[in-house]
């Protein structure tokens, strides 16, 4: 059996795996993308994306086609309580209802254009690694396939085979309730969108995603189904009718499924040359629509770091920063989804709690705090810098350059770091890094940038932006700082240093 070679094997071709494949191919990295399923199922567990995910897609020029197939909604929810997003500080202060199947189709098309095809019916069955690489064994219908790569990333879902094969633990809390959904047609549909209407032992929703069919959901807090239980359409209709008091004349089901509120997180995101991302690293109740978004953002964080390591641009410490940055983000999501589950339980005590929370959400500071958490606009990665931008996502400011008008996001299309110098400020020296870093000079018409959890801050004179759109460094002063240590930390030693090391 011949051994294939590649740079990175990605197990799992859902949104996380597809986004990671796009990031790596954009950086010129060879990718092999596998999935255990025989093909796309058309199933759409997730039904929307939030502002930060729209931003990271826009950074790569991927958002427009997806946006055309979605429907903007100016609000989200916390535990079924409406939260207005329309005044959040982003170009896209709304949620975009777009089916996961649509997102996957668009991402797969973009990945295919970069030369990567999904190998379906290709489950990973064995993983062996050494100090130089990892060998992946794949069972396919025509026989066994062996692939050697520098890295393997498990994006293969909550039951991740990769996670189990390398012995990473997955602790957390078991399910306490059951959610059920069905994509159906309705003979007697409701006149308005129904969302999380509570009644008896649970709550129900009826949401029209596309003309002619609806997604119905029912959540029962008096029932825990084993995750291997097959839910029939008849059983779903019975559960829905018991809670909602009607079945709206549901018929012609396209998909029926169930889920629980188990919340688990991998005890580490890396084992040697194997990484985890998306649901393979964390699962939780789908409250607030955060799961898909969390996985896509994992991929964008990890992608540029793997690319830098493969180019020998950066030390292993850069790869360690993936878990250091993303692990706390997922921990917070698990925490807030547990809180949302508690807010949705039946009973008079929860009724009183919901009334109190509804009043609190009328306070802008509370609504912003929870809204920014759900949309991931308030993330600040660990940083030693005291500048208010450092560690945060860069605002998508309008810019004027010698080449014409543009935006900050447009500067990030090629997944390279950018040193943005504003006004008549002299650029700091980045000699030795121009092979992997773009220096751009621009003007703006504003004196302030708005940060979602801070408000207006003075526009900086210079900003060093990582490929994932987060700020590594910024200054409001005339640039005199020696950036050597910072550039080396994030983007590896200067090119002259690399050559000298090779010669030695």
UniProtKB/TrEMBL annotation:
<keyword id="KW-0503">Monooxygenase</keyword>
<dbReference type="Pfam" id="PF21274">
    <property type="entry name" value="Rng_hyd_C"/>
</dbReference>
<dbReference type="GO" id="GO:0004497">
    <property type="term" value="F:monooxygenase activity"/>
</dbReference>
<dbReference type="Pfam" id="PF01494">
    <property type="entry name" value="FAD_binding_3"/>
</dbReference>
<keyword id="KW-0274">FAD</keyword>
<keyword id="KW-0285">Flavoprotein</keyword>
<dbReference type="InterPro" id="IPR036188">
    <property type="entry name" value="FAD/NAD-bd_sf"/>
</dbReference>
<dbReference type="InterPro" id="IPR002938">
    <property type="entry name" value="FAD-bd"/>
</dbReference>
<dbReference type="InterPro" id="IPR050641">
    <property type="entry name" value="RIFMO-like"/>
</dbReference>
<protein>
    <submittedName>
        <fullName>FAD-dependent monooxygenase</fullName>
    </submittedName>
</protein>
<keyword id="KW-0560">Oxidoreductase</keyword>
<feature type="domain" description="FAD-binding">
    <location>
        <begin position="6"/>
        <end position="336"/>
    </location>
</feature>
């Amino acid at each position: 059996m011949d051994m294939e070679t590649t740079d990175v094997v990605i197990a799992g071709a859902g949104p996380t795996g597809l986004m990671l494949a796009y990031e790596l191919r954009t950086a010129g990295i060879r990718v092999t993308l596998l999935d255990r399923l025989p093909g796309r199922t058309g199933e759409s567990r997730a039904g929307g994306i939030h502002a930060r995910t729209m931003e990271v897609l826009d950074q790569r020029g991927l958002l427009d086609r997806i946006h055309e197939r979605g429907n903007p909604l100016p609000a989200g929810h916390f535990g079924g309580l409406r939260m207005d997003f329309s005044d959040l500080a982003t170009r896209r202060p709304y949620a975009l209802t777009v089916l996961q199947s649509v997102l996957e189709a668009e991402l797969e098309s973009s990945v295919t254009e970069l030369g990567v095809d999904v190998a379906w019916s290709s489950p990973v069955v064995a993983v062996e690694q050494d100090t130089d690489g990892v060998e992946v064994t794949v069972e396919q219908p025509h026989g066994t396939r062996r692939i050697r790569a520098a890295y393997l990333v498990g994006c293969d879902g909550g039951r991740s085979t990769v996670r189990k094969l390398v012995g990473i633990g997955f602790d957390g809390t078991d399910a306490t309730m059951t959610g059920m959904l069905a994509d159906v047609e309705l003979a007697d549909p409701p006149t308005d969108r129904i969302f999380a209407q509570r009644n008896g032992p649970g709550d129900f929703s009826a949401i029209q995603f596309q003309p002619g069919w609806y997604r119905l959901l029912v959540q029962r807090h008096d029932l825990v189904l084993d995750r291997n239980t097959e839910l029939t359409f008849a059983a779903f209709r019975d559960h829905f009718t018991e809670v909602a008091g009607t079945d709206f004349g549901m018929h012609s089901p396209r998909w029926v499924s169930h889920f629980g509120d188990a919340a688990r997180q991998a005890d580490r995101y890396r084992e040697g040359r194997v990484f985890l991302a998306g649901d393979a690293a964390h699962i939780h109740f789908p409250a607030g629509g955060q799961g898909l978004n969390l996985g896509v953002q994992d991929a964008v964080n990890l992608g540029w770091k793997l690319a830098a390591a493969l180019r020998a641009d950066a030390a292993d410490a850069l790869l360690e920063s993936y878990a250091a940055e993303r692990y706390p983000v997922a921990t917070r999501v698990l925490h807030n989804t547990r809180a949302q589950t508690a807010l949705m339980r039946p009973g008079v005590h929860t009724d009183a709690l919901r009334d109190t929370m509804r009043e609190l959400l009328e306070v802008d500071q509370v609504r912003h705090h929870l809204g920014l958490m759900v949309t991931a606009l308030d993330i600040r990665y660990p940083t030693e810098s005291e500048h208010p931008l450092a560690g945060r996502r860069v605002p998508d400011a309008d810019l004027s350059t010698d080449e014409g008008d543009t935006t900050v996001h447009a500067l990030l299309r090629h997944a390279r770091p950018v040193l943005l110098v504003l006004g008549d400020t002299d650029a700091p020296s980045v000699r030795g890094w121009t092979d992997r870093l773009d220096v751009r000079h621009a003007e703006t018409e504003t004196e302030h940038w708005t940060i979602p959890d801070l408000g207006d801050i003075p526009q900086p004179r210079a900003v060093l932006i990582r490929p994932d759109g987060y700020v590594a460094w910024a200054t409001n002063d005339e640039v005199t700082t020696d950036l050597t240590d910072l550039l080396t930390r994030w983007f590896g030693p200067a090119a002259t240093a690399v050559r000298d090391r090779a010669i030695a």
